């Protein structure tokens, strides 16, 4: 079996990409993952999958909500949200800004990968405030993030 390692990472600076290629990766896809870019990159290394993908219509896309496997992954992600919410609340109540930034960073990536764009955007905003040590502005964005996570949890829909 031939392997074709592709770096999936938030490190998207030119020097980062060059480093990954130098150490043996065949390609690089930045996170949060753009589904079209991901499929295009993978298709370069899987010609058979590429020709099959051309035969399928858009509704059969790997990342479509019409795809049962992807729907299951989204369901499992949504089911993990109560734990994420609790970790956020615990870190904030303890004023553990480093932990809060880390959890926000994780949510930013995972939410973006599963199509929860608004959640990803707000988590990224919270992460940036924390990294900049702008703690006085955290409450508002934190509340927005919790609200969006609860909306995603209770609606089960990508927003």
UniProtKB/TrEMBL annotation:
Family matches, as Pfam families: Hpt (PF01627)
All residue ranges annotated as the Response regulatory domain in the record: 1-46
InterPro entries, sorted: CheY-like_superfamily, HPT_dom_sf, Sig_transdc_His_kin_Hpt_dom, Sig_transdc_resp-reg_receiver
GO molecular function per UniProt: protein kinase activity
Modified residues (Phosphohistidine): 105
Keyword vocabulary terms for this entry: Phosphoprotein, Two-component regulatory system
Claim: Nucleus is one of the keywords in the record: no
GO biological process: one example: phosphorelay signal transduction system
Residue ranges of every copy of the HPt domain listed in the record: 66-159
Name used for this protein in its record: Uncharacterized protein
Organism: Saccharobesus litoralis
């Amino acid at each position: 079996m031939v392997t074709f390692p592709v770096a999936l990472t938030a490190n998207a600076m030119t020097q980062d990409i060059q480093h990954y290629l130098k150490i043996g990766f065949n390609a690089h896809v930045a996170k949060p993952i753009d589904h079209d870019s991901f499929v295009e990159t993978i298709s370069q290394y899987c010609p058979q999958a590429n020709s099959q993908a051309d035969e399928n219509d858009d509704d059969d896309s790997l990342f479509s909500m019409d795809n049962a496997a992807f729907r299951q992954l989204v369901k499992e992600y949504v089911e993990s949200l109560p734990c994420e919410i609790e970790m956020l609340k615990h870190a904030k109540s303890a004023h553990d800004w480093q932990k809060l930034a880390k959890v926000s960073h994780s949510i930013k990536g995972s939410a973006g990968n599963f199509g929860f764009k608004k959640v990803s955007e707000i988590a990224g905003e919270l992460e940036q405030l924390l990294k900049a040590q702008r703690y006085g502005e955290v409450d508002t964005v934190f509340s927005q993030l919790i609200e969006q996570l609860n909306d995603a949890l209770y609606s089960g829909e990508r927003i």
